[in-house]
């Protein structure tokens, strides 16, 4: 009962804050950018809440449980470097041109076709990625349903129905305050959600540490942690040459140059992917994705928007370390108590939440998971609706639409995209239940890798050159970037070449797109427009 009250209190707070701060929306710009007067620290909290999705909330502890080291956290290096570049390079032209949709910049730099092509790429990629990630929010609720009903397992059809019901509830609840309140509601509810997430993680770490201590002193607890993290035999996901407490993995094995290249391109967590792959990913997700950039543009000026995104990168490392530490402590807790973990790595943390946490704390963690799911979902809905309305409805179908009609359109778009995300999430749930061998986490994290390299390449072409790129050339360049990544993925799957790890997809797609785009000269009219 206490857990239910905690969750209900969370929903009351979310709806209350969201509907209150989102009052008096008068135009598409006020809906999408909150009148450009939001404080930078609130935008910072919103960025963190948006990027810590349910996939991260459940997946990062799972990585700590399986790997028992901190190599996953290396990727935070690139997130810091990438956000510095975004803050110093990308935001200035967005503010200079006073854009609502960042793809307006591409029209001003190159032409209308580039803008529409990039906008459509974002819309399709974001629907697939956000819909897939929505699936993770249902995992905890399915496990909770099993515990409440006393079932060890449910049939495939019953499980799919539970997932769909959970995804629908979460999406509808999020769509209510997002539709009525716009970006202001998104940002201020994200502040609350980020606070809940921080409190819940600290509480979980404390519960795990005291459980491991269990009547002994802290010295014996530390010895137990070191022993279990160094004991490979217990880990169902054991890997050879495991290095407890390791942070950096250079990925070099001394087997010759070509073998070293193959090891680096095929590895997800090495220092190379941290410095290069992760930097390109962050530039793409935080510089060319309307989802993230939209909240930076809600700051009063470029300087404050830049401050928000750079500080969010600096906070990424400690947040990731806490998530991984939680997973490593989970490993020790399971080993110490002789508990057999769930077969699926992604289910380990939710299983612990439902079965092992005390009353009240369990409700807090459920609220935290819902907060991560709703935080990333609300930003996706707002960005999708803004892009579709500004780039397509207003500029293509209804250029004469007044402020009131634009506002009604963006709200209807929010509802429409909520339905689409439910359908994608339901399809993901069905696929996972019917085929348990499918690994959803790489899919959720890797979807944008196929297309965002093309987006980043064309944006960098506009920002780093003055006379390179044009509508026709940019479309060819984006298609080339996409084609190369897909071709490498297919060849890797057939073991004809090394399988490219997902952090490198964006890097390769960006380089190909940029180089092909450089082969075409910008028309004089576009150069004049940019000047």
Characterise this structure.
With 531 residues, the chain is mostly helical. It is built from 20 helices and no strands. The protein has helices at 2-21, 28-33, 40-51, 54-67, 75-96, 104-109, 112-149, 156-213, 218-229, 257-266, 271-287, 290-296, 302-336, 348-356, 361-397, 403-434, 440-464, 471-493, 503-517, 524-530. The longest helix has 58 residues, at 156-213. The protein is globular and about 75 Å long.
* Beta content: under 5%
Kindly name the structural category: mainly alpha
Radius of gyration: 23 Å
Counting copies of identical and different chains, the oligomeric state is: single chain
Poorly predicted segments: 232-245
Number of strands: 0
From the N-terminal CA to the C-terminal CA, the straight-line distance is 63 Å
Largest sheet: none
> Which geometry do the CA atoms define?
globular
Order of helices and strands: HHHHHHHHHHHHHHHHHHHH
- How many helices? The count is 20
Measured as a percent range, the helix fraction is: over 70%
Mean pLDDT: 83
Short précis:
By secondary structure, the protein is mainly alpha-helical.
Q: Secondary structure elements and their pairing?
A:
Layout: H1 2-21, H2 28-33, H3 40-51, H4 54-67, H5 75-96, H6 104-109, H7 112-149, H8 156-213, H9 218-229, H10 257-266, H11 271-287, H12 290-296, H13 302-336, H14 348-356, H15 361-397, H16 403-434, H17 440-464, H18 471-493, H19 503-517, H20 524-530
